[in-house]
Structure formats: C-alpha cells, structure tokens
DNA sequence: TTGTAAGCGTTATCAG
DNA sequence: CTGATAACGCTTACAA
C-alpha cells in the first residue's frame, strides 16, 4: 500500500519527479530515473490507477453491450474488441443485457458516471424496445443495420440475404420457407427484406405462411422447422436468418425423415465455427466478425480521443460459403448448375 | 459535468448532506432529501464514480481471466459470472488471455493497481506456464482441478472421465483411443487420469499409441482422429476430453467411411449446446457451467468483502448424458446392456 | 531538470 | 440532523 510519496522519500526526490518518471520519462534525468526505479523496486510500489484515472478524468475502459455473450458470433466480435482494447490500453467491461432494457440502462449509467469512456453496441438499436443513448456518450455500433443512426460498422444484411435466396432460386427452388428472428429485431428485418426482394425479382409471390418467427436460438429453429414439415405443400428450401436456427431446423428435418439437402435445402447466416461441422455442413453467409469488432473499437477510440472520424458508417464485405446443405430442388430442371455467386458487397 | 458542489449550492445545503442523501439516505431529513433530489434533477447531476471509487479505495470491478472467450463452455460460465456481478453491483472486466502469460500479467497488474478488486480464474493454474498470482490478491478459480491451490470451484474431472470410460468398457470396448488436451493442461491431465484408472481397473493395459494430443479445438479433434483411422488395429471407441474435439473427430471418421457409433463410438466432455445437435448427437459429461460461475463469484465477493469463507474448495456434481454417439463395440458380446450409470460425485 | 503546491470530486471526521 | 474541512494519491502549472 505504498504511495508515490514513499517512493519519493526513498529516492530522495519530489513526488512530481516520481510522477514524471512514470508518465513522461523523457523529462527526467537519467540519474533521477535510476533512483526512482530503485526506490519503486524497494518499496514495492504499484501506482494507484484509481487515483490516476480520477485525476485525469478518464477510466480507460469501455463497455460492450451484447445481447448474449454465449452466442458464438458475438463472442468472436468481443474477442476482437478485447484484443484491440488491450493493445490500446483500454479495459473491456462486459455488458450482457440478456435483452432487458433495465440491464442495458445499468450499463449506460456506467459510462454516464465516468466508469467507462465509451460504449460499443453489438446489437442494432431499435428505439421501441431499447433505451436511447444520451447524445453526449461516445458510442459505436459494431453490428449495425440499415437504419442504424450514429457511427457504425455493419454488413449489407439485405444484400447478403438476397444473395442467398438468389442462389436457392437458381437451384430451382420456388417455395422457400424463411425462419426469421424476432419481428422487431433489426437484423431479422434487414435480412427478411433481402429475402422478399429476391422473391419479387424472380416473380415469386411472397407467402406469409412460409415464414416462421424464431429468436435466433437452435431451439427455436428446431420448432420452426416442424411448421414446414407438416404443410400440405411444403417448401423445398429453408432460408434461416442465422446459423443456430438452421442447425436446429436440420435436426428437425432429419428426425422427420426429410433428407437434407436431397429433399430440402437449408441455409444459415453468420458462418459460426460449428457450421462447418454439422451434418450436412451448412451453406451460409460469412460475416467478418473479427474485422467488425476491431474496426468498431478503432472508431470508438477515435471518438473518445477526440480525433475526427474519417467515415462514420463502415460497410464490410461478406462471403457466401456454399457447403453441403443446399442442392437443386427435387425434380427441378436446371439449365446449368451455377458455379459462382457474387458475394454481397 | 456538474459536481456535488453544484447540487449543494442549488439545494441550499452542504456537500456533506448531498453525499449522505446519496449513500446513507436514512441519516438525512426528509426535507433535505427532497431539496437534494430536486437539485440533482435540475442540474442533471451524475455522481462521478471515478472520484467515489478513488475515495473509497474500491473499484467495484473484478477481472475474469479466461483462456478463450469464444469457447462456448467458458462463455456460459462468464455469463453466469456477469449476471451475479451485476446483481451485486460489480463490473466484469474481460481478460481474454489467449493463453499467453504476457496478457495474463497485464490483467493481474490491473488488480494490483486497484483497477479491480479481485480476480476470477477460468483456467486451472499451472505454475510452469503461468504467472503466479501475488498472495495479496483476492482470487478464486471457477474451473479448478485436483491440485488447484487456493479457493476454487470445480468438478471431479478424474471421476467424471472414469465414468465415461467405464461406460465405454461396459459396452464391450477394449481398445479405446483418447484425444487429450495439451500435455500440461491441468484439465486434460485430470481427465486422462480417469481414463487410465478405468482401464487399469478393468485390466486393460494402457497403450500410449492410443492417445492423441489435441488442444481443445475442433480442428485438433479432426486431425487427431486421422491418427486412429489409419491404424492397423484401430480402436472401437474414442474418449475425447472435450466436446469440440469430439465433434471434429466425428467429422473425420465420417469422411473416412467409418460409421459413428456402429463402427466407432465417440464421447465428449462439457455438454456444450451443440453436442445435442451434432449427427449423431454426442454422449458427453455435462458440467454445471452456470452454477460454477455463480458460486465462484459469490466466493470471490466474500473474500473481497472480508467475510469468512465457509468452504474453500467446492466440488460440484456432473451429469453423464448418454446420446447417440456411443454403441456396443462391433462384435462384442454383452451380458446385458447397461441401463444406468452412476454420475460422478 | 526539479520542487512546491494547488487542485480533481468524493467521503469521513468532527463539531455544532 | 447538518456543515465545515481534511483527507484520498496523483497530475500539472508554475517557479526555481
């Protein structure tokens, strides 16, 4: 519990010199430097960061607001954020909101009360169900959507979804079921837009009976798929707005004796690590999770440090990964099997 | 940026009264209370927690040291920790070490410099490869092993592993391959002990050729399995020390035309969410991830607050989950198929 | 290059 | 119950 004073006394210099030796070494003589370091060693001094942060009115911490840390896509983004933060000397406060506005508010308060210098959001902001972020708070959205306001990093969810459905249609599918996220989830909304756009473009009428509402969990994918199994005129393909629901859906299909992809194709979204190891492996849209986290962190740091933002919205490219869960529609006659699909911008 | 002074002036009371109104409301008259709250509202006051923490020499934060946040088992534990921390008014600093002692040290420093009040470790401590935690730091291990020193929460890794291998043997398996974690990983060591114990108990000689060293990733499981496929006298079952390696291994086996479980049984460890959705679904040992995080957090809080610990080591029960990835050994004659297996203590 | 001393926003200690 | 005031450990003008 020794303080800077003890070091100063031991070294025979002033506290100012000790302070400077620690934070502006170039302004201290070599001799003083040595004395200080010896003294630090001797008294076992550790600077009190609480005091330093207080004095400099900065916490060197940011909070990450995430709907669910156990979601593998989010944990990838967070890992990248943490990595970057550590490099820059910032700490990451974990803010798992579990979808509740109350918990979210707690974390917003943490930055209002100076416990954090900024806020990184991993879920698109929907004013209806979430708190509005006070305007004086430095914040960046790392997983934005089309209508995200304020600085954000995102992918083209709509375009990426359209790419997937275009592909399904090119395989001869005409009845394509969709497993959406919750109705007011901005990611689900954007992706469903792409789904509808693709259908419209190919002259396929949109059928509301063909969309099931999930909540991005495997469990909900499992349940949603039942709805499609027992239809009189069941779809030949399922477009899921994320990988876990697709994995759950495949499970159900198999249990009902429906072969994937021979009888029904299934696509995911995110390309989580498990997508490659399911049976069959999952055709899906890969998001640059690491890059998203890293870029968002860099943007937030700029805002915090008062540097100008070169661009306020950053749309990153996705990659369409074709694996084994998709095949030509049963009985479809294809002019030629598509070899290549342009990735979403 | 208004301070407690502004509130005091506005309310016509002293700063001491404002401070008390906020942290010891029972010691303030109702009248003063009202004046203060009106003033707070009016000037838009938010207490500066940096100052409060500095003054009270507490950060109300803990750091969680985790080898890899993207590991689904760890993210479950962390979610529970965060939940508990939030309830108790503590923040969680994410410390993803990526296995490097340097990053680990950075986080240990954070608690030495008062930026956190305590340390929760999610990996067993092995003195050889990790920093030693200074004795004056409040710390609890949430995923301990047999030889973890200091307060810890853990499961009986050895016993649980033995339960699995006992089961395999009861199915008639005699040549049982093992995919271990890295040699010096304490979890891997404990679990491999259980493996060997079970073999010994059943009079099956231990064969070093039958153990592959993985690193707990799916990728390493995938590679390890190849080693078993191409053996002259290949095993009829694989005991993997975690689920991801088991999932990777199954992938390899299938690709090599080896049916699971008909030709070869595979077992995992952890029971991550995906274990239920692989094909075939995975027989594995379920760890009480949430409970482990919650208990460890409670213990750490007690240490921080100076309360006595009722017990310093807490061993939680596991549950053996038999799914579809295990079956009787090919050609084995079983006296009677085992119906029930006693779970590890 | 170094030292002196004035804060930073709170809480805690004393008197009143 | 309330108010004045001294810390808390550090940074940073300003002076030397």
Automatic annotation (TrEMBL), chains A, B:
InterPro entries: HTH_LacI, LacI/GalR-like_sensor, Lambda_DNA-bd_dom_sf, Peripla_BP_I
CDD domains according to UniProt: HTH_LacI, PBP1_LacI-like
Protein name (record): LacI family transcriptional regulator
Any one Gene Ontology molecular-function term assigned to this protein's record: DNA-binding transcription factor activity
Alphabetical list of SMART domains matching this protein: HTH_LACI
UniProt entry tagged with the keyword Zinc-finger: no
Presence of the UniProt keyword Oxidoreductase in the record: no
Keywords tagged on the record: DNA-binding, Transcription, Transcription regulation
Domain HTH lacI-type: 2-56
